[in-house]
Structures are given as structure tokens and as C-alpha cells.
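Before relying on records like the one below, remember that each one covers exactly one chain. Contacts with other chains, cofactors or solvent are not represented anywhere in the record.
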Amino acid sequence: MFKSQILGGKLDTRRVVLLAILVALQLVLARFAIPLVIFRISFGFIVTALMGWWFGPLWAGIAAVIGDLINSLMIGVPGGYFPGFTLSAFLGAFIYGCYFYRQKITWLRVILAVLTVVLFVNLFLNSWWVAILSHTPITYHLGARAIGEIVTLIVHPIVLYAVMHFDPIVRLKNRL
């Protein structure tokens, strides 16, 4: 039971292609971020959550790593590649998979998943990675990032719940 919950289903050709399409979509959506003063709003989290919901924690995490590597090494990111952010990508997708894979999508489940990702991955780990890269105290980054993450805690659950209950998305998930 636990093994199938973590590993997810077997990947046949159709599911591999869908996972690759989701990785590509994640890269595209991440490019169309809305830059604000302190942070930017990106919609790549939607695809990350869908990968976790449809494929399970492990496959979603692996896909997120592949997406992060493509984004960092081929497309390029400011400051260059840093493996800590790849770990964050894996953990974010893995956490969404743990909350959503083979589970009924409820408001509580969505809120808890977003809360876990935002507090542990986005706020703590990503602040730590930036502190390491910039040689500055993590407390500086925690404070600066906390403001943006408060907005994330409000917006992400609403968007995810709406997307995960959108009829075409539900029908596609049921065909997997």
C-alpha cells in the first residue's frame, strides 16, 4: 500500500508523454510570471500540483527535477544553477503528490498541501538557499520572503481548488 502510494502507477508511453507535456507546460507557465516589488507570482505551481495528483509523489518529484534542470541549465536562471533549488522543486512536487495522489481533493487537503509547501519549501528552504548563495543571514531572507508567501497562502489554495475541480481537468485525470 505505502509503496504504491509513493511510487505511483507504472508509466506507460501515454503517461510518459503526458508527464513530459506537463513539464513543458510548467516551464512555459513559469516564464509568464507577474513581477511585483518583493516577489513574483508564477503559475507553475498549478502544473506541479497536477503532476503530484495524477502521477504520485515520486514521479511528480522526478518530473519537477527534470523541469528544474531544463530551466536552469538550458534556459538559464539568474545566478546560475544551484542544486538546492532542484531539491526544493523535488520536495514541492513530492509534497503535493503525498497530499493529492489517490485522494479526494478537499479544501482542507488543498490548504494543508499549500501550507506545507509554502512554509517548508518556499519560505524556509528557498530562503536558506538564497542565504547560502548571497552569504547573508537567513533571517534577512525569511523576513523579506514572508510577505510574498502570505499572498501565496491566500491565492494558491483558491486557484488549486478551482483547477482541481474544473470539469475538463477532472475528466483528463479520470482517463489516466
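Residues 31 and 78 are 13 Å apart (CA to CA).
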